[in-house]
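Sample 3 of the quickstart, ligand iron/sulfur cluster:
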Amino acid sequence: MSLQILMAGAACGKTTEVLKRVCSELSSTDLKKIWVILPDRRQINSFREKLLTSGNMIGLSTGLFYEFGNEILLKSDQTYTEAPELLLHRILQKIIQNFSQTGDLGAFEAIKDKPGFIQLVHRKVSELAEAGYESFPSDNLDPEVDVILKIYQAYQKRVKQRQWMDPHQIISMALDAVRSTSSVIKGLDFVAVDGFERFTPPQLNLLCQLAERGVKVLITLPGNDGAGRTIYQRAQESLEQFQSAFPDLELIYAGDQPFLPSFILGLANNFLVDKPQIIEKQSDMRLLSAYSPLQEVREGLRRIRFLLNKSAFAGDCAILIPAEDQYSALLQTVANEYHIPIHFNWGKPLIQVAQLELILNLLHVSTEDFPRRLFLDVIRSPFVDLSNFGFKPADTAILERVSRYGPVVAGFDNWMKVLQRLATKGEESKKQAELDKEDDEIFNLPNADACQRLMESLRSLAAILKPPEKEKRITFWVEWLWQLLEDLGWLSQMPATTEILWFEKFKQNLREMCIADQELGFWYLDFDQFVAELEMGFQMSTFQQTTDRNKVQVLRLLDARGSRFEHVVILGLAEGVFPKSQREDPFLPEIFRQQAGLESHVEHNQIGVFYQAITRANSTLMVTRPYMSDKGEALEPSPYWNALIACLEEKDIEVVRSTTKRTLEDAASLEELFFWSHLFKIPIKFEDEHLSQTINKLNHQKAVLSSRQSKRIEGVYEGELEKLPPGLAKFEQKETDWSASRLETYKSCPMRFWTQYGLGVVEQHIPVLGLESFQIGSILHQILEDVYRTAEDPTNVDQLLDLLPVIARQVFDAAPETYQFEPTVYWQTQQEEWLAILQSAIIGLASEEWVPIAFEEKFGLDGKPALNIELEDGRMVRLHGVIDRIDQDLQGNLRIIDYKTGVSHLGKDDLIQGTRLQLPLYAMAAMQALKMGEVKEGFYWTLNGEEAGSLKLSKFQSADFEGPSGAIQVAKLHLQMIMDGLSSADFSPQVPDGGCPKYCGARLWCWRYHPGRQG
Ligand code: SF4
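Result:
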């Protein structure tokens, strides 16, 4: 009977002692059966590596507690088989359903369908199973605890009935096996347990049982602290539990002086003692306070970059962080910049694997009826090969254009309808011209042949993605999915040679679903339920990534126990980050946990974890804390940080502020080198071609940045070009075709003009349901034109109002086809609103004096004469356009009316500033090009405002000009200025009054962009 507990401080050689004992056992002449139990896979690998040097490993097994228990069970006569995870999940799911049906879920009834509830219950049940909990509900319990325990009881019963075993129960069952049949441990000579400080009741009892039955058991525990600190409190509790269960155990105290560099040793010895001694700082230890978590990461990785440059081995360096969701993204980003390979040491959920996310997207494409974005993402994915369906690599881009042209927001039928329309239309298609009749080319669309091919491909893909409608057994769905993945080339994208851990886990999930079906009765689900189960499985299952010893190891602080590294960096010593604030478990409260032997939820022994962490370094240690959060809020230091700095003089604590001046030698990346050189005005002295090229590039970028930051808008980066770029050369030609809107665009903002007409930038909009504003304008214009043209007497308001609903109905009915949009639920309501504003327009524009004589009258288009305006310098400007309406009085004078859907920028000042030139230019066109008579009046009619704009040509007055002819003079002056601006290639940005319009394509990069009223 032998149970030894070796108690020694952290880094005091406990693992070395275990190694010695194992080697000694292995070297004996008798063949020995030895087990070494360790807490995680990385420590198992590390232990085996160390043992390899001793040569003899015959008879030695290393593994997790769970694997040790499993080996015992294999030798026993128990008939239980370890249950697959998804089978247990299914059992739990059924139990919760039953509880719900019988009204036994209590307060959980309200949250039973919430995402995460079942996983939470699963975790509680696993904790109870791991603790070997066996007493069942009593009257003294909280109702919620009572429900959890009843679920657990029902779960245990169901699992046992099926002859399955929850893996969390393995140690309890191994304990039962040892108790009932000692032959299961026959031949087992020695068991060593290293790297633990807490044991579940079944683990503790199993080790005691082994010792009672003659197996030599050696357990190491951290402890033997002479300073009375709480750092070993958890281990001390474990020791007391062992002493109570096995009073004859032999307790061996080993050295209390850790094998650590002197400075780290001094720090460890003075950590959290009453009167810490001030120790002399040396280069193997750094404590650094940084102004943000990002800066902490940069300083930590800079240290590692420095060590790697000094030929340290990456696998000997470790970064310890409080939790996996803190610092990971920052570490990955900065490590990429510094070219440091890093490896995260924790399991990754299947849901984070891109290939599996694609599967879920694939399944949603059909159920959500081919939503535009999802569908395009699926066919763009590199994880499928759709060539068998006739798709070509460029088809995603083509279909994207088709969807914008359509537009297609979702719907298989809509995709087909648009492709069919394009196929019928011919090789090139043009979108409905914008309200101002501009003729911008739209992007290339597929020709008729390509449309036919795409329709065929889409049909075949839709056929294969379409799931059967009825409920099916889960085995059917698994086969269906597998076949789908094969047909889509997803499976053939898997490298055949290497074992891919996530893929193995994915296959295991599918197998487990089938096992659940066979074991628990046919599992019928409809397609949506199957997808939900699959997704839940992806969320629950994690896969361990293989340890890469050639990379810097990133570990959670909790997982660092039992490992040693040459160089350690610890991040995150801020209050609330580490130690983490702890809250009581609302499902299994603390008082119950203590009684049931479950791990405490509020005392995670974070002191012990941190102490262990600082003693993991063989050579150097760096500890950092952020004094500000990412959002710029002050962060208090962690109490552990305060305990560390209590051993140092203030001057030994490094502080990196945003203003701290750095030396260029410390830069860990080129980006940092140049950034610091600029920031601290330190010239770079290196004679390196690559560096000088980069400097030139940066100097150029600096000039751009200065221009950007300057309040004055001037210079070559602000659109002041030396000569017209080739795309705009046509505007310099003697006779250039212009429209009013182009001229207005230049006056409004020359940069916008250059972007739109020089660069030809057309912003591609994400299709949305319903109408765009230019389509609304077109519909309203068309109705008014048709009503006035159809009326026998266009001055008779009653007749016009009678005609309005009839004609509007025809236009509205044809509109979805004519203007290519998908009506929304508001379509009918919109029609009523528009009828009302059209009525107002007809009534508001009625006049006894004026008779409408022309509608949508063109000039410079369709063979009609253009308006030629000669400027003072002899240049000729040729204009084209469409006048919405022209009225005439009894004397033959004209009135020009232009309908506007918007209500802003229709006043006199807009003409004086040159941003609204249409009315005087159209007046000139009616008089000079169309020769229809003298214009005496003109105004904009705001359809939505239901009134005329404030600018009236008859009443126009500026400092020097008045009336229609004065307005025309003002427009001509602006024409002259526009042409002068173009000649001097001036395209400076200019924020229009009221802000930049949302349709300015340049706003996506223009640094003068200032959002304004939308219109
Ligand atoms: S964003 Fe504004 S300033 Fe810039 S080009 Fe467009 S309208 Fe002009």
